[in-house]
Amino acid sequence: MNSFRGRVLVGALAVLSLPALARAGLHYSGEQFAELPSRPSGFLTDQRALRAAGRERPDGLPSPLRDDYLAAATRLEKLAKTRALTADEIADLGAVYIRLGKTDSALNVLAPAVRKFSEHFRIAANLGTAFQLTGDLERAGVQLEEAVRLAPAKLKPFEQAHLKLVRLRLKEGKAANQPATIDDLFGVKFVGASGSPEAGALADAELKKLPADALVTVQQLGLWLPADARLLWQFGELCNALGDVRAAAAALDGCVTEFALGSPDLRKRRLVYRAAADELAKKPGHEQHRGTLKTKSSRPLIKAFDEALLPAIESDKTNALPWPLLAATSINAKGRPAFVKYLEQLDGKTVALTGFMQPVKDELAAREFLLLEYPVGCWFCEVPDPTGLLNVELKAGKSAEARKGLIKVTGTLVLNRADPEGYLFSLKDARIGEAD
């Protein structure tokens, strides 16, 4: 195995070998999360995707994650017309409505059900979240108390943190609508030894107060409530406190650019962290790019892919190849892949997908490169999973210069079933076009 490819596959396989835990404070059986904490860049990517699923795209283009939630809602709605839904199905429908931003619909489903299924944990928890998102924090607190009582042991600490969050904001009153600070979840002041915000540092006295599971807790809350700006701010402060100023700057950038938070304290901190991150980016080598947080997964959201929702495969036409379909590939302890049936059927067919070019050699124009779902800031520090790499080989005699933006690649899909030293997926005789 060449050294470049070896670093990719060995590092990525180490990530995939970690156990997956099905947990969500927003309880939907169609979601599964990897063990937390996840790499900050992966967390921010998936949190943003969950946030985007909650609204229609303004450009009218399809949104794969939202489309999956819509399909799940449609299926359960049709089922409800033929028979009474089970408690688990009601919990799922309420959760899907919440993911889609339809909180009133979630309340209409969950509120009657909680009286009928008073001991059902997922219904209680989802209803508490629905009340919170509609602004009724008092009723949210009541329901989340029930969720804490009913929660399995593994989930209880996260439900307790959610309840604490709601109680803190209920106590704030109207001030919670225009927050000047983060939620005081841990009793910690996020300042350095000087008493002011410092890049990549937290005062020793404050660091001692910080619970060992603080980052896990905030990531979980952030996945349950992806449109909550203050949780994103809290995540950024934790990253900075634990030494990852690049992740801190990215999170606070999102608080300002995506959520337009106007807190003077937030904006001051953002300038401090961003300046430090920009200085790190100017330095040579890779150590300054490597995140300092100890993480257990590359991305938190494990996509449960529903093959029934995919279009029929056509032998004489170009078929769309969704990235989540590649991510659904599993790899056993011996490194052997198991492809889902739909992907097996695409093997040898013409497919197209969009992504970002990653050169494998230092050359101006190349005939072969990797295609990634998301751009990588530092290749050696943010190694994608093997299921997130697509090897592209252009048509004979063709080459392409490296591009930074999104591209569309069309070619013949080839699956690697036997060679442990090769990439799992390749596109042969490929051509590059503009992304749709």
TrEMBL record:
Gene3D superfamilies: Protein of unknown function (DUF3299) (2.40.50.870), Tetratricopeptide repeat domain (1.25.40.10). It comes from the Bacteria. Residues 1-22 form the signal peptide. Keywords: Signal. InterPro entries: DUF3299, TPR-like_helical_dom_sf. Coiled coil: none annotated. This is DUF3299 domain-containing protein.
